[in-house]
Amino acid sequence: MVQPEDQARENIDQMLANAGWEVRNLSDANISGCRNSQIALRFSTSAAFSMTRLRLTVTLFRQMPISLPSLPELELIVREVDRRLSVVEELERAVEANLHRVTRLRQSILQRAFCGKL
Description:
Layout: H1 4-18, H2 32-35, H3 38-47, H4 58-63, H5 71-115
């Protein structure tokens, strides 16, 4: 049986998809940068209400501006991520090669030890 929360999430995801948004799992998204941006903080402190604890309603939350990088900035980010991934892949290959070398060296040392050549 579908839980009400799951049904609500599916409805929201469908509405976002219809609006042209790419829907992802929350665990795949990093929204902390947007949530902590100056624009979002300014909006939330000016739109929130209450005396002891600031509250944002769903209606107010829907009006919150989301700060996204410009297209050139996004392209720069993609290039930098690609560059760093290339470095990581190269390091992985080096580590793998060194692990194979260590295995061969260990076998060689053991062979010499058992043959009395050490």
